[in-house]
Design goal:
The structure holds two protein chains of two kinds.
Chain A: E1 6-15, E2 18-28, E3 33-37, H1 44-52, E4 57-64, E5 67-68, H2 74-80, E6 82-85, H3 97-104, H4 108-112, H5 114-124, H6 126-130, H7 141-154, E7 159-163, H8 171-186, E8 191-195, H9 198-204, E9 207-212, E10 215-221, H10 222-227, H11 229-234
Parallel strand pairs in A: 3-8, 3-9, 6-7, 7-8
Antiparallel strand pairs in A: 1-2, 1-4, 4-5, 9-10
Chain B: H1 8-26, H2 30-51, H3 62-83, E1 97-99, E2 102-104, H4 106-128, H5 130-140, H6 142-147, H7 152-177, H8 185-199, H9 204-221, H10 230-244
Antiparallel strand pairs in B: 1-2
Helix pairs in contact in B: 1-2, 1-3, 1-7, 1-8, 2-7, 4-5, 4-7, 4-9, 5-7, 8-9, 8-10, 9-10
The structure holds adenosine-5'-diphosphate and magnesium ion (MG).
């Protein structure tokens, strides 16, 4: 068994004085799809932002591919191979779809394979190819999410982190997003998914963690999660 | 990252003095002195960014205004101290351009050409190059740009350097058009704000169009109006344009 691709131990982070996550620990193995689940305000977004280096961590360890990345600024973490598709997508809405994708490939490593990766993204989301010259701001919510995922893939991440990619989308688009993530996983991409859509997440995930009040309180395989009484009752509405 | 630079016009003045001394001391043609004022401006801009601007890019908008106001005062006072308030000019003239029934003074033709070349080059840089796109990305959404692996500090340094190098190089062109003093920077800053907002923020071609529109309107108005009120014309035009097109002539949301 090789070392996990990402190992987070006892992570703690705060916004100013207000502690947002107290004790978050999890790991993601290579080619795994791991879901972090939890209610609104549990600390999921904060966890991803801290791993990415957007938010400074107050305590704990973040080891990526045996490299201690705690304290690295976000742009360096991208270079190391972790890419975050943020909550709310964070597109450059005044720039074209094509330019958004190019910016996704900003790092030296990704820029070399820009053409090849763009073709891959266009195959995954043909609508982006059709509308490549249009401004990102004119896309529908679902198309914007495709662009956000596509832009994330352009960076050739070794770990792709997604923060609530299905939030606010029409039901058909939700299905499409989860389908796409399932396909990417099959291609061997390692994915860390944060979601409130527990049911759909557990369908594509290998393993999952449950976050509550800034702490990881449960860990298990997707099957174990589906069978867990607490999860059933509080998150699956069964 | 949006820094309105009150000291912009004072960097124009610095460029004018640089070209003036290059001419007086070693006979360098002001056009040729662009080869100095462009990189010199970049270095000045980068140095100002590292020492000063960097500290306020994340602060509320008032902070950059105060800080660049201080920088403006510092530069004009320093020039005043070094070179006295004496009005200076570069005694050089170029053959006028005669065509289409219009006679254009040579200096004006050269300066106008430089303005067009600079605006087009800047636009191409911002639209076509990776670095230019990164600059636009940081301007639109600094947090997202960071998630692309862009180092916003480095982008800020380069953009400020480019902005100042344009200002100082414009100084080299100003000496072809008029005499100058250490205190002329403020007028240019004011004028440039009107022009940039008129043309549309963030659009080099818009700035060019804004400048031409302002120049034409001011000159036509001066046929009827007292010269004392001409400077106010710009603001009247600005208000009218912004009512009709809130993002300026060439700007977009
Ligand atoms: N920008 C912020 N400033 C202060 N507190 C915040 C900020 N963002 C989130 N929080 C707080 O941190 C906690 C975790 O939030 P978050 O990570 O966004 O949760 P989730 O993504 O699971 O909904 C919440 O209590 C929230 O109120
Ligand atoms: Mg969240």
């Amino acid at each position: 068994m090789s070392a996990p691709l990402l190992e987070v131990s006892n992570l703690q982070a705060a916004y100013g004085e207000a502690t947002a996550i107290w004790d978050v620990s999890f790991r993601v193995d290579r080619s795994e799809l791991v879901a972090i689940l939890g209610a609104n305000g549990a600390g999921k977004t904060t966890t991803l932002r801290t791993v990415q280096g957007v938010l400074p961590q107050r305590a704990g360890k973040v080891v990526f591919d045996s490299l201690d990345i705690a304290g690295l600024p976000a742009n360096r973490v991208v270079e190391a191979g972790i890419t975050l598709v943020p909550e709310g997508r964070g597109l450059f809405s005044r720039m074209s779809i094509e330019e958004n994708l190019e910016l996704g490939a900003f790092t030296k490593r990704a820029r070399r394979n820009l053409g090849k990766n763009r073709e891959f993204v266009f195959q995954l989301f043909p609508v982006l190819k059709e509308r490549r010259k249009q401004k990102a701001g004119v896309l529908s919510g679902g198309e914007q999410q495709m662009l956000a995922v596509g832009r994330g893939l352009m960076s050739e991440p070794r770990l792709l982190m997604l923060d609530e990619p299905s939030l606010g989308l029409a039901p058909m688009m939700v299905v499409k997003v989860f389908q796409t993530l399932g396909e990417l996983k099959k291609e061997g991409l390692t994915i860390l998914l944060v979601e409130q859509n527990v049911e759909a997440s557990l369908e594509i995930a290998d393993r999952a963690y449950l976050l509550e009040n800034g702490r990881t309180i449960l860990e298990g395989t997707a099957d174990e999660f589906r069978g867990n009484p607490t999860i059933k009752e509080s998150y699956l509405g069964l | 990252m949006k820094v309105a630079n009150i000291a912009h016009g004072d960097f124009v003045t610095i460029g004018a003095y640089a070209s003036y001394w290059l001419f007086v001391l070693s006979g360098v043609n002001p056009i040729l002195s662009l080869l100095f004022t462009i990189p010199f401006g970049f270095a000045l801009g980068a140095a100002s960014y590292l020492t000063l601007v960097r500290r306020v890019v994340d602060s509320p908008e008032l902070m950059p205004l105060f800080m660049t106001f201080g920088l403006s005062t510092l530069i004009s006072s320093l020039l005043l101290y070094l070179y006295s308030p004496t009005q200076r000019g570069v005694p050089i003239s170029f053959a006028p351009l005669d065509g289409l029934g219009v006679i254009l003074p040579g200096g004006v033709a050269i300066a106008a050409t430089y303005a067009v070349v600079a605006a087009v080059a800047l636009r191409l840089f911002l639209q076509k190059t990776f670095l230019g796109k990164a600059i636009r990305a940081v301007m639109e959404n600094r947090a997202s740009a960071t998630l692309m692996g862009i180092n916003p500090g480095r982008v800020g340094l380069i953009s400020f350097g480019i902005g100042i190098s344009i200002a100082t190089s414009v100084g080299s062109m100003i000496v072809l058009l008029q005499s100058f003093t250490p205190l002329m920077g403020g007028d240019f800053t004011l004028l440039s704000f009107v022009i940039v907002v008129l043309g549309g923020l963030g659009s080099p071609i818009g700035a060019l169009v804004g400048g031409v529109v302002l120049g034409v309107v001011e000159n036509i108005a001066s046929l009827w109006l007292n010269a004392a009120v001409t400077p106010a014309i710009g603001f009247v035009v600005l208000v009218i344009v912004l009512i009709v097109r809130p993002y300026g002539l060439m700007g977009s949301k």
